[in-house]
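Exam review. A common question shows you a sequence with its C-alpha cells and asks you to describe the fold in words. Practice with the pair below. Do the first one on your own.
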Amino acid sequence: MPVPTSIDHALTSLVERSLARLAERAPAVLADPPRREALAQLALCSDFAIDTLGRQPELLDTLDGAPALLRLEADREADWPAQLRRWRAGESTRLVWRDLRGLDDVDATLAGSSRIADQALQAGVDALSASLAGRHGWVRSAAGDVQSLVVFGLGKLGGGELNFSSDVDLVYAFPEHGESDGARPLDAEAWFTRLGQRLAQLLGDVTADGFSHRVDLRLRPFGASGRLALSFGAMEQYYQREGRDWERYAWIKARPVAGDLAAGERLLETLRPFVYRRYLDYSALDGLREMKALIAAEVQRRELAEDLKLGPGGIREVEFLVQALQLIRAGREPALRHRSLLPALSALSAAGHIATATAQRLAAAYRFLRRLENRVQMLGDQQVHTLPDDALARARIARALAFPDEAAMLAELDGHRAVVAEEFSGLLEARRRRRAHAGAIEQYWRALPDGGDAAVLTDAGFSDAVAQDAALRDFARTPAVRALSGRGRQRLDNVLPQLLEAAARSEAPDASLPRGLALLQAITRRTSYLALLEEQPAALARLADVTARSALLSDRLAAHPLLLDELLDSRAAGPVPEEADFEALVAEALAPLPPGDTEAALNALNELRQAIGFRIALATLGQRLPAVDAARRLAALAQSLLAATLALAEADLAAAHGRVPGAGLAVLGYGSLGGHELGFGSDLDLVFLHDAAPDAGSDGARPLDAGRYFARLAQRLVSLLGSVTGAGKLYEIDVRLRPDGAKGMLVSSLESFADYQQQRAWTWERQALVRARPIAGAAAVGDAFEAIRSRTLTAARPHDALREDVRAMRRRMRGELDRSSAVRFDLKQGEGGLVDLEFLLQALVLEHAGRAPALVGPRDTPGLLQALAQAGVLARASVDALLQAHALMLGLGLDCTLDQRPRLVPPDPALDAARAVVRNACAEADLAFEVDTGAAHPGA
C-alpha cells in the first residue's frame, strides 16, 4: 500500500468538507455509497459544481437526466438575469458531472458548452426583441418584412467547440436598413444596436448570481471602434475592402447562433469568397506567420510558455495549422470547409493533405489539451488556460483525470505538445536540402536555404545582393517548395536559376527578382505551369521582363496565377481583342454556367476582365498598343462587363419583385469611362436614370414602387461590381457625379434629371456631361438622356460667365489636387496636364455647340479635338499638336500605373513641349488656369 502523503491528506480533507456542505442542504444524498463516491469525485474536480449544487440542491436529482430548456418569461423581465445565470450554472454542472462520470467524451463536452451558449443567446434575443418591440415596434425591411438580429458566433463558439468557461466571440448583423413600426420608431441600426448592447449585458454582467457568458464583441468590423451592429450590405463592403488575413481565419468558424439563422447562412455564403479563395492561396501562410509572431511575442512578454492555449505546442497551434490548410485549399475543395476543427482535420487527412497517422496524433493531442483546459476551468469556473501554480490544485486536476500524480499528467502533456509543435513548425519552416553540382547560380539555389553565398548574386548583377539573398532563402523555406514532388522540385530547380539569370539581364534586376519569386510562390504547387516555364524559354524571358517593368502585372500574376495562361499563351505577343469583340467574349464566358448562379457568373466575368486586361497591359508594356487605343479597349471592356453585370442584377431583383412594365434603367458612364479613356485599375463614374411614371410599380409577388425598385437595382449593380470573387472584383464605383452629388438620390427620373440640368446644375456638372454617355441598360432611357444632354450642351450661355466658372473650378482643383513639385510633374492635375486639356475642350464645347451641334457627338479627347477642328474652333495645327501632347501624357500615365507609381514624372524636353502646347491652347481660348496667388500649392 502506498503511504499517504500530505497531498493525499489535503485532498481527503477538501472532499470531506465539500460533502459536508452538500449534506447540510440535501441530507439524504450521501446515504447511497455509490452516489457519495461520485459526489466525492465531483468535489475533487470542481468547486464550482459543488457550490452550484449547494445553491440548487434540486439539481442533484436531475444530473443524469436530459438537459433543461431555457425560457425567459415575458412578464418577468426583472428576473431574467438571475434565471439565466442559475440555468447556465445548472447546465454547466451537468457537463462537469457527465465528463467526470465518463458519460461524455471531450467532443460532447465542447458541444455541450456550445449548446448552452446558443440557448442562452437565442433566449436572450427572443426576450429582448419582444421587450424592445413593445416600446419601439418591430424593425421592418423595405418590403415590409419583420427583421431579426443575426448573432454570429466566431471562434470556438462558431465551431461548436466552446471551452467550459470561455467568453463568446460575437458579431451582430441585420439584413437591411429600415425602421421600426412602433409609436416611437427607431432606425434599424439603432434598434439592433440597443438589442445587442442589452444582450451583452444580460449574459455578461456580474450579479449576485454570477454571470452567464462573458461577451467579446471586438472581432466585429473595425474592432472595438466599429459600430456594434451592421447591415449585411455594410458587412459585405467591409470584408471586400477592409478584410484582413486574421479575419479570414476568424470567419472560417463563423456560425449563426441566434436570431435569423437562415439569413445568417445567406450572409456567410456571400462572404465565402472573402474567406476561401478559388485558387491555391499560399498567402494564407504569410498571414499565419504574422499572427504566430505576434502571439509568440505576447507569450514571451507575459511569460505564457506553459499556457495550454497560446504556448508552444498548444491549442492555438493546432487550430492555426488546420485553418491555414483550409484557407489554402478549401477554395478549390469545398469538402474542407468545416467550422469545427476535428472534422476539418479529418477532411484534410481524407483529402491527402495531412498524413493519416499525423492527423491521428494531432487529433489525440487536441482532445487531450482541450480536456485538460476544460478541467482547469471547471475547477472554479474561471477563464484560465494555464495549470494553477498551487500544488494542491494541480493534484486535484491530475487525480480527477485518473493520473496517479502531477508528474504523470505533465509527462503526457509534454508528449502531446511536442507532437503539435513539430507539425506546426513543419508547416512554416523548410527542411534543409542539398542538390548536385551545377553552375554558380544553380549551385547557389540548390544550397539554399542554409547554404549558398550571396556573392554569387552580386557577380550576376544584383545591386542589393543581401536583400535578394534573404528573399531567396525565405522562398526556399516555404512549405510550397518543401512539399513539391520529386519531378516538381526538379522543374523548380531548372526554372528558378533561369529566372535569376533573366532577372539579372533585365532593366531592373532588383525589382524583377522579388516579383518573380512572389509569382513562383503562387504557382509552385501547380507544376504544370512550372513545366511550361521550363520548356518555353521565351515565356520565361517574358515573365522576367514583365516583373522588371510592371509592379502591377507582377502583383496580378502573383494574386491570380490563372493570368500565367495569358503570359504563356502565344496570343500574349499577338493582337489584342478589338472593342467589337468584347460582347461576344463576355457571352462566351457566361454560356457554360447554370442560369441563376450569380456567384459563378461574377467569377467568370472577373476572370475575363483579368485575362483581357492583362493582355492589354502586356501589349501596352511592349509598345504594341498605343496608349490611346489601350485606354479605349479598357473602357470598352468595362462597358461589356457592366452590361452583363446589370443583367445579373436585373434577374436577381426580378426574382423577388418582378419588373416595372414599360420602364427601364439606363447606366451612364461619366469621366474616363464615358470618355473612352479608362486606365488600369480605374474606378467607374456612374449615374443612373429611369423612365418610369411617378405612380408605376413592379409586378412581382412583392411589388415595389418604381423609385425604390430602380434604386434597389442600382444598389445591386454597384454591389455586384464591387463583390470580391476568387478572381478579384470587377470595379470600384463612384456615384458622386449624380444630381446633387452625395446628397442626391442614387437614381433619378428622366424628368428630374432634365429639370436639374436646365435649372440647377453647376457649370462643372455641364462640363461633365461632355464626356457622359449611356453604357448599359434600357436603350429608350439612353436615347432620352442623349436628347437631354444635347439640349443642355447646345443651350446658349454667357461667354464671360462660362469662362470665369471654368477658370475658377480649375484653379480650385489645381490648388487642392496638383502634386507637382520642382522635380516632378503631375500628369493629371499639373499645369498643362491632362485635366487642363479636358477643361479646355469642355469649355469650348459648351461655348460653341449651339452653333456647331456636331460637337455634341464625340466624348473622347481625340474625337473632340477633331470635331473642334472641323467646326473651325481650333486650328488644325493646334489640334495635331494637342493630339500628340495628349497621347504622350496618357502613355506616361499608363506607364506609371503599370509600375504602381504615382502619376508624377520628371520633366524632359518632350513633356515640356507637350505641356507648352496645352498651356498655349488654354491661353488662346482665354482660359488661364494658374492657381490664385492666395491659394496654397502642394508643390510650392
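Now try the second one, then compare your answer with the model answer below.
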Amino acid sequence: MTGPALRLGAAVAALGMVVSGLAVGGAPAAGKPRDGRGYSAEIRRASYGVPHITAHNFGSLGFGVGYVQAEDNLCVIAEKVVTVSGERSRWFGASGPTDANVRSDLFFRKAIEDRAVERLLTGRRDGVHSPSDDVRDQIRGFVAGYNHYLRRVGGAANLTDPACRAKPWVRPLTELDLWRTTWASMVRAGSRALLDGIVAAAPPTATGPAAAQDAPGAAAVLAAVDGAPAGVGSNAYGLGAGATTHRGGMVLANPHFPWDGAERFYRMHLKVPGRYDVEGAALIGDPIVEIGHNRTLAWSHTVSTARRFVWHRLALVPGDPTSYYVDGRPRKMTTRTVTVQVPNPAGGTIPVSRTFHDTHYGPVVVVPGSFDWTAEAAYAVTDVNATNNRAFDGWLQMGRAKTVRDLKRVLDRYQFLPWVNVIAADARGEALYADHSVVPRVTDELAAACIPAPFQPLYASSGQAVLDGSRSACALGADPDAVVPGILGPANLPVRFRTDYVTNSNDSHWLANPEAPLEGYPRIIGNEGTQRSLRTRLGLDQVQRRLTGTDDLPGTRFTTGRLWQTVFGNRAYGGELVRDDLVALCTAQPTATASDGTTVDLRDACAALRGWDLRADTDSRGAHLFTEFALAGGIRFADAFDAADPVQTPARLASTDPRVLRALADAVRRLAGIPLDARLGDVQTEPRGDQRIPIHGGPAEAGIFNMIINPLRPGVGYPKVVHGSSFVMAVELGPNGPSGRQILTYSQSTNPNSPWYADQTRLYSGKGWDTVKYTEAQLRADPNLRTYRISEGRRH
C-alpha cells in the first residue's frame, strides 16, 4: 500500500483502535503518574486532525498531548531534543569547529553541565519558586505519551515520516529533555540569542584584544542584540463591547512564526473536567495551550520590544583579565571547559573544547567591535529568563481565568511571559493589553545613575542597557511587587484595560490604543512618541475604519466574519500611501540607475504598478514588484512623523530622493526572468509533495498585515515560505460560549504521509477557515469526528 492509500490506512488504524500500554521493542517505561491509576486519555480528532483531549487529571492530559503530538510531529520534537542535548554535530554534521551546530552544542552542553534546568526544579512547588505538581504531572505525562507512541509503532525504524525514520537520533524522551526544551524557549531572546558571543568569549592575549574564536557568529550576535527574536512577530486585537456587534469580547490571534522547525504551532483542545478547558495552540513539544480561549476569556501574544538581558561592563584587574572589580574588591571569574564530539572528515569524531567564563552577573559575551574583551574591560550579561521556571504554571492559570481582570491577577502572581505581550478580551466586553513580560529591572533612576555616559545614547536609541559592573549599587536590585529579584514588578509595566479595543503588531506599548497612549515607562520596555511601523499603522487603521464603517464592509462593528475579512483583506498600506506618487515619478523618469550601476528601463515596472490592485492576494498582479521595491528601501517619506497624528503620518513619497527610483531599479533587476505583472499566487507558493500551493500575504516592509516572508529565488519567484502568519484565530465570546474561525496555515503535521500535512495550507490559500469547536454541540456537529482512547498502566 503506498501514497494516499497508505496515509488513509495509517490514519484509520490510529483512530479506530484502543491503544494498550504494552511496551514495544524493550524501550524503558516513562515515569508513572502520581495517583497510581495509570494514564488514560480520550482523543477526539476533528476536521483537519485537530485533537480534542479529555482526561481525568493533568498527568493523563499530558499523556494525551504527548501521544498526539508524536503521531503528527515526532521528528520535530526529536530534533528539538537533539539540539538541547548538545548533539547536533554528532547527528547532523559540522563543517568545522566554528560550525553553527558546534556552537549550539557547546552552548547547550554547558547548560547541562551547569545543571541549569535541575536547579529550576528545586524549591517550593507553588508555580513561582518551582513548577507546581500539576505542571510536573503534565510534563511527566507528555513524556510517557510520546514514548508510548514510539513503542507502539515499533521504534524509529517503523515511523512513517521520512525526516526521522530509522534515524539513530530518535529515542525515548526523559522529563529532563522536555524541561531543557522549555528552558531553551525561555532564553530565546536572551542568552540563546547571544549564543555565538558567549561561545566566542576568550580573554585577550598579551598583544591585544582576543580575536573572536567563532567569527561567523559575530554578525548573528550583533543582529540579536538589536531587536526581538529573529524570525518571529505577530498581530493581535482585543476587541471590547464598543467594537463588536454582540457587545461581548473578541480576539484576533495572528502570530508570525516559522513555517518549519521547532517553532511551529500545534492546534489542540485540552480538558480536565471541572479544572481546565482551553482550545487554541501551543508550540510543538509544549504540553499546554499558549494562545487560545476558554469559555469566557480569549488571549493572544505578540513579540514585545522589551529587552531580556542587560550588559555589565566589567573593570578588569590589571594583569589578570579573568578577574574584575566590584566596589574596589577583585572577584575571580569562574570557568568551565566543555567538550563536544564533532564528525571527523577522515572518519569517527574529534573533540572540540571551549572554555566559558562566568561572573556573578552571568556569562561573559564578546561582540567584536562593539563589546570586546580587552585588558581593561569585558562585558557580562544577565538574562532574566534564564531562571524563569514559571511559564507553564502561568499559562495553566491563564487558561483558568474567567475575565481580563482575573488574567491581570495571574500575570501579577506569576510574571512568567518570557518575551511576549498579552492581548485579551472577555465575555463581558472588556479588553486588555499588557507588556507584562519578564524585563530586567532597569528603572529610569538606575539607568541615569549606572549607565556610563558613552553608553547612554545606545540605551536611548535601542533600550540596550550597559550597566557599570564595578559597583554593587548598579546591580538590578528588586522591585517590591516583583515575584523574583532583578525584574520589573507589575507597577512598572504597561497595562491598559479598554471597552473599545487594544492592539499590537510588534511595536512598543505606546499605541496599544491611540486614544489612551501608554507613556512614562522605563526605556528598556520600548520607545514612546516615535514613528510606528507600516504594519502597526495598518492594524490601527483597519480597526478605526471598521468602527467608522469606511472599510467597505457592512455596519460599523466587528463580527468574526468581518474580522477574518479584515485580516485577510491583504491591504498593502505602503502601496496605498506611495504607489500613485511612485507611478507618477517613474512615468516622468522612465529610466534609473540601479545600485550596481546598471541603467534600468522602468516602463514595464511603471505599467505593472499602475495596474496593481494595492493588495497581496493570490490574484494581485504586480504585488511582488512593490514588495521588492519596499525591501530595497524604496518607501521614503517627504513629510515628517507627527506624534499628534501617529497613525496617518508620515504619508507622502519623497519623490526627489534618488534612492526611491534606485530601489525600483534594484527591484526590477532582482526580478529578472519573472514577469513584473505576474499574479502573486503564480510566483509565491508553498510546496506540499508535488504541489505548489499559492500563498497570499507579504512582508511587513510593504505594510502588509498578513505577513508572509518567502525569500526570492532568482528567475523563479518565491517557492517556500520561511515564516509569517501561522495560527490564526478570530474568536467571539458570547452568551452561548465561544464561536468563530481558526486555521493553522502550514497544517497540523510535518509528516508528508499524514492526511493532515497540507489540508489547512490549501484552506489558507483560499482564505478559508475551520470553525471553533469548543462546546460539545460544536464538536459533535463535525462530520469528520473520530474518537479513540489511549492508556498506559492499566487495561480496559
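Model answer, second protein: The chain has a mean pLDDT of 93. The longest helix spans residues 58-84. Full marks require stating both points clearly.
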